Amino acid sequence: MSFQEQLQTLRKAKGLSQEKLAEFLGISRQSVAKWEVGQSYPDIARLIALSEFFKVSIDKLVNDYEENCRLSIEENKVNNINRNIIDFLCRAKKATYAGNGGECKSSRPNSHDLEYVEGNLKYIDTYLGGEKFSGEEGLWQDDIPFWSMNYTGRVLDERFSGSFLKEALSLVTEENPYRGPIIYQNGQYKYHCIINGEFKWFQGHEEIYFGNVKVYECYFHGGSIK
């Protein structure tokens, strides 16, 4: 059952109109209507609220949510991409920023640069800023660039934890080798990542909540280059 179908079924089983559900969530009826026709999807805070309200596990909601956000493995499988490249990218991510890897010489004034190399493959992550930041990750083979991802983000609240962000990013998977997992929680911290597209052309964003307060957000996009 798709996310929108499940939402309609759960709502009607409780005898609720779209207006009543919207009132409970503190949003407009139009937002609920768009969810139920697949025009948009709830952010992590609303997803958690739906899970608690309908007494349905968040894992089940996320599974259907994945399907509609093109987050399933089938939608995101990396066709025509050498599996070794994906494996290398995941190792590089885990060994650099997420793994507290040491920085190399700045490529630009006050930039933060991290590099990882295996044979003829090279990964470089370079970013500017801190609480508000922007950067780029890139892959090279024989010193020829063939893939990149740009990102920009910001800290929204003092309860943000850089350690939790790195913890989530260290769980990057071969199926979604971009940032962290679709959803991850440790204590009151919750990480959520939405991706549209595939390895050669994609867009996405990630969020971190502390309880029900959004403390961090980051948008990213990228793909193959030649």
Structural class: alpha+beta
User: Tally the helices: what do you get?
Assistant: 8
Strand content: 25-35%
Distance between the termini: 40 Å
Arithmetic mean of pLDDT:
87
> How many separate structural domains?
2
What order do the helices and strands follow? HHHHHHHEEEEHEEEE
Low-confidence stretches: 65-80
Strand tally, please?
8
Shape summary: elongated
**Order of strands in the sheet with most strands:** 1-2-3-4-8-7-6-5
Radius of gyration: 19 Å
Largest sheet: 8 strands, antiparallel
User: Roughly what percent helix?
Assistant: 25-40%
Keywords:
single chain, 226 residues, 434 Repressor (Amino-terminal Domain), 2 domains, 8-stranded antiparallel beta sheet, 33% helix, Cro/C1-type_HTH, Lambda_DNA-bd_dom_sf
Structure write-up:
The relative contact order is 0.12. The chain is α+β, with helices and mostly antiparallel strands and 226 residues long. The protein is elongated. Strand 6 and strand 7 form a beta hairpin. The protein has an 8-stranded antiparallel β-sheet with strand order 1-2-3-4-8-7-6-5, with helices on one face. The longest helix has 13 residues. Helix 2 crosses helix 3. It is built from 8 helices and 8 strands, in the order αααααααββββαββββ. About 7% of the residues have low confidence. The protein has 2 domains: 66 residues, Orthogonal Bundle (434 Repressor (Amino-terminal Domain)), CATH 1.10.260; 146 residues, no CATH class. One of its GO terms (molecular function) is DNA binding. It comes from Clostridium diolis. This is HTH cro/C1-type domain-containing protein. Keywords: DNA-binding. It holds the Pfam family DUF5680.
